[in-house]
Design a protein that fits this description.
Layout lengths: L30 E4 L4 E4 L11 E7 L14 E4 L5 E11 L4 E11 L7 E3 L9 E3 L5 E4 L7 E5 L5 E7 L27 E3 L8 E2 L4 E5 L4 E7 L5 E4 L6 H9 L7 E8 L5 E7 L10 E6 L9 H12 L6 H6 E6 L4 H5 L28
Parallel strand pairs: 1-6, 9-11, 19-20
Antiparallel strand pairs: 2-4, 3-5, 5-6, 7-10, 8-9, 10-16, 11-15, 12-13, 12-16, 14-15, 17-18, 18-20
Length: 367
Amino acid sequence: MKVGSSFLPLVLISAVNCYSQGPLAVPGPDLSITLGEPVHFDASRSKATRGDQLVSWEWDFDNLDGVRGDATAVAVDHYYNYAGSYTAALTVRDKQGRTDQTWQRIEVCSPVDWGPTLVDRFEGGRSGVVSRSEADFTLYNQWGLQWYFRLDNVAGVPISIRIFGYGPARKVPIYVTPYNDDQSFNENFVPYVNYDFSDPRWERLTDAKLAYEEKTCSLTIRHTFSRSPVYLAWSPPYMPSDLDRYLATLRGNKYCRADVLGKSVEGRDLKIITVTDFLIPDAKKYSIWMIGQQHGYEMVGGPICEGIVRQLLSPDVGQSALEKFVFKLVPVVNPDAMAHGGFRYNMHDVDLNRNWDSLGEGYADRS
């Protein structure tokens, strides 16, 4: 069983139980600020288990910049240099070397005097802004049809967004997987919107006016938003940090464990969730593997895996199923592509859905 369009064999290596007994990292609240204001990060509520003590506190202010250990203190002030939305990580360590990690989200809004502003500096953000035209904002789909961005200072202001790159004439680069799907505009398309980066509630923007121009293969979206900032996406995104937050809710469940399966090309953890009765040896049970989001734009894989885990842990399933089966779920196989805006391939241009077993000639060194 799986989530996606083909099977992908995975081997568990160097698994580390994320939920063993140990310290508890507790961050401050999610915040929304204006660019130029400081953020006060405070880990003073974090704690060690009884009889132990914390010896280090490490902050990563931006989960996308590839830099960890931005600060090592219980509390620290930080200024963000760019408008965007950030997922900050806190990692604490106790005297025995055990660690725990947690996250908080920081939304940095454009100053009001900037007027309407498009922002895509956040996990999964992708706009392809190329110019301003007769529309307030003009974008171009560089590959695929996905986009995800934020608009600041737009409450009560009529806004138009023109997106080029639809239609059968659009150029599709030849990658590892040769194909040329029809990328025509679908008249049933409706964009998605949410107003909260910290706790997104995606809804279809059904009252927006959409106009497609076949000659230029462009879609224009016109709408006046009642609130600001506003996040717009072609499909509700599911990011690696969303999975991290969900895994934190599973802490302490005796039938569920989260481990690190391995690393992505850019060094992101590949998370695996095991659901079973751990008191019964695996050799006496059947194993069922499920995977999701091999392609960065297949946003439903993560949420579906979350739903499967919730169902497996519910009274509706019962303990008997967990006594007979070991459920292994990898919700996000391609976290790099998700973080960079939903590309099909991994960061070596390899299609993890089709080319994991027999790479094409010339790609053997890019797996």
